[in-house]
Amino acid sequence: MKIRSLAFKLLIAGAALALLWTAVGYWAVPRLVKSQAIQLVRERMSRELHLGQVHFKPWQLQLSVDDLQLPDAHGAPLIGLRHLVVDLRAWRSLQLRGAQLGAITLDGLDVHAVLAQGGALNLADLALLAGPDSPDDSPTRFALDRLVVSNSALSLRDEDRAKPFELKLSPIRFELSDFNTVGTGGNGFHFTAKSAIGESFDWQGKLELEPLRSTGQLTVAGLQHSTLSNYLGEQLPVQLSSGTVGLQASYTLQAGNGPLQLQATLQQLQVQNLAMRPRGGDHDLVQLDTLTVSNARADITKRSIEVERIALQGGRIDAAVTANGSLNLLALAGPASPTTNAPVAAPASDKTEAAWRSSLGELLVEGLNIGVQDQRRTPAASVALSDARLLVTGLNSALDQPLQVTLGMQVGASGKLALQGQVQPQAPAFKGQLQLTQIDLTPAQPYLQGIAGLKLHSGWVDAKLNLEHTSRQPLLAQGQLEVHDVQSSDSVLDEPLLNWGRLQLNGLRFTAAPQQLRIKEVVATGLYARVVVGGDRTLNVSRVMDPDGTQAAAEASATATLPQATPLPFDVAIDTVRILKGASNFTDLWIKPRFTVSLMDLEGTIKGLSSKDATRATVDLRGNVDRYAPAVISGKMNLLAASAYSDMKLDFRNIELTSITPYSGYFAGYQIRKGKLSVALTYRIQDRKLDAGHHIVVDQLELGDKVDSPEATTLPVRLAVALLKDRNGVIDLQLPVTGSLDDPKFRLGPIIWKVFVNLIVKAATAPFSLIGSLFGGNDEQINQIAFEPGSAVLTELGTQRLAALSKGMTDRPGLQIEVPAAYAAQLDRQALQQAQLQLRLQAIADKAAAEKPVAKKSATDKAEPTPVPVLEDMVVTDAELADLGRARAAAIQDAVLRNSTIDPARLFIVIGPSASTDDNTVRIDLTMK
Question: pTM here?
């Protein structure tokens, strides 16, 4: 009975305790928890905590709280919570000798984080709830089966910057499983969050506190450029216009008594549709389709970063050299940092840390398009580089491994560039090959705009070059280069200027130190050059070289001048220049009708070209003028320093003179009906001293109709032609020129023209002087025939002169001579009177001798009273003087025609003016017609 009674009492007591526990749990505990929580916050944080309904299930040991609101120090929301459920594990807590919770569930957690100016974080206020630090350093014993945070949000506002940054993540879910601070548990966690614009964050792993150790994986997807721009603010040197970032990474973190150990692996970082522009810019300079970093590993203990691959696929870069000469891409680096004069000293340290080591296995760029502009030109020079591909392998921070580099791209619409080689970063040094295929030259037109009035219509470059760079040799290029299908014109007349089919440079070798160019062979196929004189008398060549030239420059361009020697910027030597199917054309648009002459079928070689003064190049070029007139250019010269030494011969044969009728009509006043021209020119230059010979032969020249030209010469052109033309119809002239090229007044072209014009003037104004020099030595007075007064007998000098004149007329069948039947009235009259007087006196003497033969007396014996005649009594009529003139003309005619084949019709006796007198002689001046 006693046992039953005791059992009953125990049962009643247990029931009472159960009822009490139930009452306390359902009624007292919630109130106690709520009041204590509010009191704790009030005491330690000086603010009011709002709690809604608090429930406690005593038998399940489960505490739940609804509608928790905790403000910050300014009364703004800090923590908000819709529903909290905590499952207690009392028995396990006793076993653990610490807190043991079964599960904690937070639903609708809303956290407002604010980083104030100065760097103070409002969430740091939560540390106040922990109270003063405990001196006990023993680890906190805590275990948790599971923590779940769902349907939550985080609002972050950073006010510690010029422009506040705001970010809201919602929904957020966080789960922590089997967490234990002192034992071995799973300690797994998983955090996920999304932003309002679709960015997602996923972080999961394990976390151990004793010792601190964590491993995990982080995934970020769709991180927008606007978030990065807003967060980084002014720290970001560029302005991002678009782009998303995604990454996948893992890490291992461990911290104990030793140094912090952190190993992180970035499996993949991918940036898509990234566009950047300078801050304040109005357009994007860089647009990248996809930038991927693969398998990047960092180890803080080993101080190393290893990246397996960085790949850029697709995109565009707009690069430009601005009008002030700066590169626009430099603006993406932001404004330059201010510099100080004094360097900042690094803090002293007894411990020297090892330098970080980094390496990149492969850098790959594919499908990149690059637009390049030079805005210093008007219009801007531009070229499009498309589908660029760059592959670099072997990069590392030690720079102790060779890099393999491969680069390829399309240049313009059809060009190709390929470069591959090996780089030694430490040296630095490079060795590789460059290949250019069908590179268009026309984008270079803006560079010709300011320095030459040249329009480049087409032109292409192909090249295969071996390149090398070392510290001693900045550049060594060897191989071959070809420029082909070049078509150009001058910008004023829009006429073809310089064209060629193919220009090959074989065996090319260029060095930068020393500056030297060597070419084994240059082959020019289809070379064509055109020289045009415009309507304003200026050469197209001069306009090309000086498009903004002055009148003085134009006049200088029209005058042939041998230039001063201009040293080339570097040493040049070309073994052989070979010209195939060359041609040139000269057109004068100023003369009416226009004049055109062509040099065709030009072929030959130039061997031994060099910029050194002592070298001599051998020239052998042959072609035809207007197809059928052969032309030869040969000799030795230094083409790259022509004024130092030249010994050249230019030979042109059988050029049709009818082609220059426009010039002959304008300047000479006559058309050319017939004739051929051959020219042999020799130029010898030694130490800038010129000795030039011009052998000009004109065959069968016949002048045609007279042309009414205001610029035509007034000289008797037909007479000059007749005088210069020999019996075979040939005009053979030698025009030597000598002088010093250092004489600023020395101009070869004007000198040649002056010699030629002087010859024509002499032929027209002093033809007998010219014919005397041609056939009678240096007698310039061959046309002056002297007679004794009153006499028609030729003197010995007169006979010699007439013999020379006869020879000249024989060799110049076109010449006609007029012989004046002239007399000197006073001198001849006196001479004839004197002769008559002598005859009269002789007659008187003869008569007296006949009458008195015994007593002979002289005629002048004054002892006789016989009257004596005087000179004044002698009468010479004009008819007698005219007879004397005709006798003299007949004597000259007979001396010229006797023993010759000269047609008498070519010699005319005319009644001329009075004869000249000179040194008591009478001079007859012959004239030509």
Answer: 0.72
